[in-house]
Protein 1
Amino acid sequence: MSKHRVLILLFISIVIIVTIKYVFAWEFILEGEVRETFDDNIESTVETFFEKKKYDFITGMILGLGARNEGKTYTLDIIGHVRQQIFARHFDLTNNNQDITVSLSKDFSELISFSINDSFRHYPEAERFEDLFGNVQGRTWYWSNDFGLNGILEVNKYYMISINYNNQFSKYFYTRTRQYYLNNYFYSNYSNQNLEYSLTQTARMQHEFHWDSSNNIYIFYEYQWTKQNLNGIFQTHRPGIGYRHDFTRQLFVEARISPDIVLPPHDIRTLYSVYGIQMLISPQELYYVTLYTYAALSNDVDEQTNATLSFTYQNSIIANSADTTTNWQIAGDVTRQLLDRLAFTSSIFYGQAYFYASRSTNRLFGFSLSIAYEITEHVSGSIGYDFTLNNMQQDGYGLFRGYVWYNGAYIRENSGYLRNRATIGITAEL
């Protein structure tokens, strides 16, 4: 293609974008970021005599493109990102990943509103602390698609109905460490909890009653259906009640409680290998019931500061592991505008989960800190740090030097890893 043709196509593209922008009221977003990260445990390795953790310097480049169309009664948002990670010392881990999100909200009237959202992610490893439950060693890269529908009907100022539906499909790919294969060879014992994919559908209905401007109570019913390969179909029923109180416009507390009814699959619960002999372990209960509890506190302290804290206790069907857990977790976030151009954000997380099939307890602690400075109206720089401590404790008959006898072999009672990451980057947005 000649130089003149390239210029002509570029000119035509600019004219089309400008026409769409001003005629159809589209707003376009262009984002770019370059960051450098030091990671002292790139493979989330549990250190042993046979294997040591590896560090690396990772260069990340992000390009984002988005568009928004906003009318009197609707808003349409489209945003996508392409990320390139380059590892300096372990180039074989270099990867390209992507995400795209499309969301539409529509107000049919002052009383009826509707929204639809679809998000696709292809990531080299879990980015949230909550997604690390059950995966104590090795990297897991995955792609997933999350589709959601939400509808709200305000019958009057005292009564409101909301309906939600969510569909999530995920496919997983595992990168195991040398220690993982050594354990299988020497102990000939492992619990095959790896999934090829999982499909989860969730439906929820909520009836909300407003006493006054500060108090409302609601009843809800939530049903979750999950199919896992290599496992079966799990079902969860959650009928409950909730309450919210607004102390001020900035400060509120919310809590909800419900029985958590879990129906595990009746065919294969998990697959064990004991000295080369395959054993199918069936569920020992047709169903079990525990208590679901959720509480949250949010406070906009002033125009520059926001703080939130939440607590959850529940039964969960783990997304990336063929197991169910009873777990609880605490999460907190604080954002603070220190100066006109200087902002501070932080988050902290602690979670504990008991896995029934593998008879083990996972404890995860993590926190992250970040400071961003607005250099110009469209360009900002940032520095950040995050820490992860992930530990797994195995049930079994205690023997010696931290080992237990479990499922016909000697297993380490406690295993886990530490991970530190420090990042510096610059971001531009138009």
Protein 2
Amino acid sequence: MIKNNKNASSNLGALFNKKDTIIAAIVIAAIAYLWFETTKFEKVPALFSNNIPPEMFPQILLLIILGMILIIPFEHLFLKKDSESIDSGREKPVQKTTIGTMIILSIIVASSQLLGATLAIIAISISLPLYWGERRLKVLIPYIIGFPLFVVLLFNIVLGVHFEPGLLKFILN
């Protein structure tokens, strides 16, 4: 009887997992807000649009994320273990490294308007591995040089998407 009460508190019936449903609802609200923001994008003249409006890519991405989020409340149904097992590790607090990573990323993303995309990518490539404790120069140096270079080349040359220069505009001029 106690096991059933515990199950009932963590599940909304047998179909929805309570914690997962709450998380999914929060993410769906964020997706709705971001979708609304995409409707405010400037209209591109037909000559430059190539038949794809600027809001289409973010909206496709949001739809993909939404599709994955809609699975979360039902995830416990796909597991072979009982429905309590999905919540077993969730009682532990979030690790300090996770919180530190979120703070570092938030600061860099918040300053990306000033830094520009390229410097923000470089800052992330340097700060996160160092924060996580990586000290091997044979690993760090190729990553710190290679990853930002790969991202910039991929977007600027292959995809033709140019990043906002930020501080680089002043440095390179």
Protein 3
Amino acid sequence: MSNVQEPVDYYGNMDDVAICRFIKAKVADIHSALEGVAQIDTPINGCIEKVVLVNENQQVFENGAQTYDVWLTRGVIFTVDGREISFEKQNWPYSEEINIEHGYNLIDKFGEVRDFSEDWDPGIKAVAVRENVVLQ
């Protein structure tokens, strides 16, 4: 899982935005993005029972007409031996940080989708909905 800035069409303008991706990686490619910081491996030694991909659909409407419709992956939640581990991309689109939590009912700790809908100019309506994909 990575969350690295890339130039993309961001609501009608090219901008560097952090994009969350899940890709197959070679062991040599897994390292801290921070120079001089060693990656820490933490073995789980458990059985993965379920994986939940947390996706969001963000839509923008100007004067009643839809001007933007984007899907993004907000994060992933693994259930391991009854406990959860989550990795969440921050709501701030430029942030490359990933929040890591462990415990129970971690979907409740994810940022609210309504955060996307706030602080737009008058005449612009922004809505977001979350759709979780469960893999068992």
Protein 4
Amino acid sequence: MAAFTRIHTLFFLSLFFLMSFTATSSDRPSLAEPQVSQIFRNIAEITDRASIEWILDDFLIAEDPDLVERLEIIDVSNIGFGRDDIVVVYPSLNVYIVEQPSRELTEIMRSWGIQEQRRDASNELSPDYFYPDQADTLSEEELRDRQLELVQGSIIADLLESVNRNYTDMPISLRFERDQEGFTFQIWNYDRNAFAFHPRPAAPDTVGVYDFMYMVAADTVIIADTVMYDLMFINKSVQEIIEVPLQPADRQVIRTTNLP
């Protein structure tokens, strides 16, 4: 049965109201304006034919199973599916209270859960804390394994940065849903005076910009009408030395030549 059950989150208005009285007495109190808010609750959607018949029979709901397209069981108390939940029958939209399901069906309902991606964090953390700026260093395999984490962090960072920039108080509640036809966005539980619009900061310039430097060079060429020659001087000196020994027989004449 669980294979045919889809769990999603119900987002509806929690309205507090007083019934109107037909009495015309002047003592009737005035109807004060209620505070309207919104809450999240889980819904189990059942579309399997055998499961629908079993639930209708177990809950003692007098509906023709052949005419029922689906059932929605709303976890009103937010403590798990079971007793005191609400059953909505489609397409009749009849509403029933789950009084006392059987033990077997109760155990199955307790196992229903939603695969939600939720992050809770302190207000002291900046948007940059959540942005996955290290993603450009991850391998393709790591990107695939951490894809959901990286996307979630990126969305949180961008949303938190925008809220911090445009809203200056606490608390505030947001809702965003999108399907094939469009999206829904809501803000509630806020102080209107705390809104202060600030434009998005300019995107950083990631394109290299170069300053231009113009260089002008001028060469002067002189053409002479006279051929000029460079002069090269070669100097030569000769020195003669005559040495006369003490013994005339041993006299020698030594001639040396020094060239610079």
